[in-house]
Amino acid sequence: MTAAETLNVESRDHPHHHHGWWWKTLIAGFALWIVTIVVTAVTGNSNLVPTLILLGSFLVPFCVVLFAIERVTGSISTLQLILAFFVGGIFGVLGASLLEADLHQSFWIYGLVGLIEEFVKVVLLVIFGWRTVPKTAKQGALLGATIGAGFAAFESAGYAFNAAITSRGIDLVSLLQTELVRAILAPVGHVLWTAILGAVIFGSARGRRRFRWSWWILLTYACVSLLHAAWDSAGDVASFFAVLLNGDAVQQLQNGSLQQSTVNQVEALATILYVVALAIVAAAGILTLWLVLRHYRRAEAAAVVETPVG
Q1: Residue 301 CB contacts under 8 Å (≥ 6 apart), including other chains
Q2: Residue 268 and residue 179 in contact, taking contact as beta carbons nearer than 8 Å
């Protein structure tokens, strides 16, 4: 497929509907989530907890899929994206769990987790995108975001379940806090990392039917894994610097223990540093994706100009 043919395919009208269903679903789903919370709290019915977990964990990631569905072109179908979300998400968490089973807590744990999870997602990305035509950076970013969203949804469901189940029974507050935080962060976590990888892998194919190897793919994989590790380790790093920046905390630790007032100060500072760290990592990821898409968009446009017509 030539560059001119690629542009022609990208420009064709796709059978997907463009009615802003992603934000409509987000609003409606959020309302249902609130109603489910109220009914669960009023009735104390634990049978509604799975509904809360599913709604809270899947709402934002599924809206990412709807966002992609409304924007894809070429040969990617709605069914392919939905399968990439569900099947890719399931196999993603299963594969990551198997590969991470023997990991032990160490200085390198976050880096290893980042490498493993991004590797699993990139394998799924290649499998689901094998027959996708044209293979352009935009197509790869959308398909990558979909697979990342599926991974995030099933992973969040697991975290929500663990937060809900305690020795004292169902902890509804902890469940809701976990779901809310992960829902807010979902678009700039797994979704963003896999979108970047997808953009580079598909962009390297330059509109052809088959994937092409490029050292930029390996470099991007390393960078994305590093961003993933920085994201996961932000809490520990924030806590470390919160203690380090509090002179009283350092002195009290040398004497054996922290006073409660100092603990409160450290926790408050750690929360601020944690939010700042996540914002920095997210901004770095968003900027990277924008630069990658801009680079390949210009390269594709230049190739079209150089391709003779007729």
Answers
A1: none
A2: no
Q: Whole-prediction pTM value?
A: 0.87
The Cα 126–Cα 198 span in angstroms is 9
117's tokens = 């999870």
Nearest to 206 by CA among 88, 280, 306: 306
CB contact set of 204 (below 8 Å; sequence gap of 6+): 211, 212, 213, 214, 216, 217
Phi, psi of 218 (to 5 degrees): -65, -40
Backbone angles phi, psi at 209, to 5 degrees: -80, -30
Could you read off the pLDDT of 62-115 as tens digits, one per residue?
999 898 888 877 778 888 889 999 998 999 999 988 888 887 777 788 999 999
Rounded Cα distance between 206 and 200, Å, is 10
